[in-house]
Design goal:
Keywords: Signal. One of its GO terms (cellular component) is outer membrane-bounded periplasmic space. It catalyses: Hydrolyzes the link between N-acetylmuramoyl residues and L-amino acid residues in certain cell-wall glycopeptides. GO terms for molecular function: N-acetylmuramoyl-L-alanine amidase activity. There is one protein chain. 33% of the residues lie in helices and 16% in strands. With 640 residues, it is of the alpha+beta class. Among the domains are: 157 residues, no CATH class; 275 residues, 3-Layer(aba) Sandwich (Aminopeptidase). A hairpin with a 2-residue loop joins strand 1 and strand 2. Helix 12 crosses helix 17 and helix 14 packs across helix 17. The protein is globular. The chain is built from 17 helices and 24 strands.
Length: 640
């Protein structure tokens, strides 16, 4: 019977092979940008054709499309075919994730994410096979079986016009968090090739920044994350360096910069941006390019931009509408390549990118973690409806502390204590607001003081520095000391998800001397110090590396993070005066982060934070990001 079944299976497999193979027939192609085309061709698969004006530009273009920006990285062995000195053909698989996404966008503009499934429209009659679709969108043709199952198909044959559902967890990581690939048209050109201004920045960055990759490229799609409170998945050997978090940031910023052009009119300089499908001025322009997130700031600047562009109804703008952004409102990374602020941003990024941040510590042995939860006492923090900041983020702290202490060998300290519950997680949806929290100074500082919003903030970084000095004197390596402060944001209601703030080597105090009124506290003596630029660059590198891990684990565990720049080092209220939160700015611990777990002004986020299960997810995300920062790799983050 078994032999009969095997024989039948082989016959069936041979019968359907023509339906799975790459299609035969005329090629399909679509423009990706001004110098490249996406091509889907019979018998040869998918590839990008690149054509440059001058032969000297070809190598730089190939490095951009593959993400191999460093001249030391060879382009050999990638299957690139140079048809002449100005043209080349690149296999789809060697493109950087950003350009893989642009490639798919060009050929299948109607595709979109809908809930747990990617909806792929069979567009090119007779030229798409199930194997080809699976390979392009998931990275493995073998996934055709699962796609058949999900779509209740009895045969891999697919008819023109059909919409195939592809499970989100099977998708290439670069697509898993894309809600919709914006449609394109002649009037709304696809992201153009880097203009001369951006090319100048790219060439300068390429001197010192190694291969640009998306963190998503290193993740194996389709694996399940570890259970919320279970031990982490079995660690695997840390593979060869796969690109730093800063290289990924550079890739992200360049992908946005190339969508801008610069000009000047009677009202002054501006950057021009064409809106894409589903984008609004508030999120796609103000939040992304101006770096603003608070409701008042976003609304204020949006009003300026709306008036500048003489827009009557900002809720009814067509796809492709070009928006002039006043130049002085742009964040440094989006300014022209000869702008002093942009050059300072670039130099800092290059310096930080050279710093090695990878550590290997078994089960966090020897790692010391200082945890902080914002506000407390008479200061509840952000407050909307039945959700307020201090009790909800304190519960996240308790859950993190519990998991670290029961599962790892890390030592955990808290800056704050709620005497009524100590550190016991609360499985409730609503809390009883009280005012009894204290800071763990010596003597203790009661957070019901009238100076809680000033003294309470300063004493937190003083506690952190006390632990840092004490631990370093006892022989602990600085890189094995970690600080995190949990908060809940109050932003524009259109924004949702978490955000991580890290220190910035461009903005820091040269010398720190605490107020004398704090001299009665034990922590005072450890807080007279100075920072060097080298120390700050180390801090930015290590902190950003953790933040990238946090965002990666958030997405794996289904914890929402901001669509626009979930990791930030500066907070902007005005274009010329950025600031860093005090708990980061005056903190000596090299690896430190302020985590805004959600936006309480967003209804969905409020509902999430009220759930004990979600708060546990937040804690799990943090712990697993910490594991990653000290050498652990989870099964679903292995390079594919």
């Amino acid at each position: 019977m078994r032999q009969l079944f095997v024989s039948f299976a082989l016959v069936w497999l041979f019968a359907i092979m023509p339906l799975l193979a790459w299609p035969h027939g005329a090629q399909v192609q679509a423009k990706v940008d001004q110098q490249s085309q996406a091509v889907f061709v019979a018998g040869k698969g998918a590839f990008l054709t690149v054509s440059v004006k001058y032969a000297t530009e070809l190598d730089a273009a190939l490095r951009m499309y593959t993400g191999r920006l460093n001249a030391e990285q060879s382009l050999e062995g990638l299957g690139i075919v140079r048809t002449n000195d100005r043209q080349a053909r690149l296999p789809f698989e060697v493109l950087s994730p950003l350009f893989q996404k642009s490639f798919l966008r060009a050929l299948w503009p109607k595709d979109k994410m809908d809930g747990a499934y990617w909806h792929h429209h069979i567009t090119h009659k007779g030229r798409e096979t199930l194997w080809a679709v699976a390979l392009l969108y998931t990275g493995s043709g073998q996934h055709y079986r699962e796609i058949m199952r999900v779509n209740k198909m009895t045969s891999p044959e697919i008819e023109d016009g059909r919409v195939l559902k592809i499970p989100r967890n099977l998708l290439r990581p670069i697509l898993q968090h894309e809600e919709q690939l914006p449609p394109t048209s002649v009037d709304s050109p696809r992201e153009p090739m880097l203009n001369a201004v951006v090319e100048a920045g790219l060439k300068q960055a390429a001197k010192t920044v190694r291969q640009v990759t998306q963190a998503a490229q290193t993740a194996q799609a389709g694996q399940n994350a570890p259970p919320p409170t279970a031990a982490p998945a079995k660690p695997t050997a840390v593979t060869k360096a796969r690109g730093t978090a800063f290289e990924e940031q550079l890739a992200e910023q360049l992908s946005y910069r190339r969508q801008l052009t610069y000009g000047r009119d009677k009202q002054g300089r501006y950057a021009l941006y064409a809106l894409k499908s589903g984008e609004a001025i508030y999120s796609a322009v103000v939040v992304r390019f101006c770096g603003l997130v608070s409701a008042n700031d976003v609304n204020r600047v949006a009003k300026v931009i709306i008036e500048r562009n003489q827009i009557r109804d900002e809720t009814d703008l067509p796809v492709g509408r070009k928006i002039k952004i006043p130049y002085n409102l742009l964040e440094p990374e989006f300014r022209a390549a000869d702008d002093a602020a942009y050059l300072a941003w670039q130099r800092n990024l290059e310096a930080v990118a050279r710093i090695q941040t990878q550590l290997r510590v078994a089960n966090l042995k020897g790692v010391h973690v200082i945890l902080d939860a914002g506000h407390g006492g008479r200061d509840p923090g952000a407050h909307f409806g039945h959700a307020w900041e201090d009790d909800f983020v304190y519960d996240v702290l308790c859950r993190v502390k519990l998991r670290l202490e029961t599962e790892t060998k890390a030592k955990v300290y808290s800056t704050v204590t709620d005497p009524s519950i100590q550190f016991v997680p609360q499985d409730v949806k609503t809390f009883q607001m009280d005012h009894d929290e204290v800071l763990n100074t010596k003597p203790v500082y009661k957070l019901n003081s009238s100076t809680v919003t000033t003294d309470g903030v300063n004493l937190r970084w003083m506690i952190a520095n006390y632990h840092y000095q004490r631990l370093v004197k006892s022989g602990v390596k600085p890189e094995n000391i970690f600080f995190a402060s949990f908060h809940a944001d109050s932003l524009h209601r259109g924004l949702s998800g978490g955000m991580v703030y890290v220190p910035d080597a461009r903005v820091y105090p040269r010398k720190v001397v605490p107020y004398r009124k704090f001299s009665k506290y034990r922590e005072y003596a450890a807080n007279r110090f100075s920072f060097s630029r080298k120390e700050m660059q180390q801090a930015q590198a290590r902190s950003f590396s953790f933040a990238k891990n946090y965002v990666t684990r958030s997405r794996r565990l289904g914890v929402p993070v901001h669509d626009q720049k979930p990791i930030r080092s500066l907070i902007y209220r005005t274009p010329t005066k950025p600031f860093v939160p005090a708990v980061l700015k005056y903190n000596r611990i090299p690896t430190r982060a302020l985590i805004e777990v959600c936006n309480l002004n967003n209804k969905t986020d409020r509902e999430n934070i009220a759930s004990p299960r979600f708060r546990q997810k937040l804690a799990d995300t943090f712990v697993e990001a910490l594991y990653m920062s000290y050498g652990v790799r989870f099964g679903d983050d292995e390079s594919s």
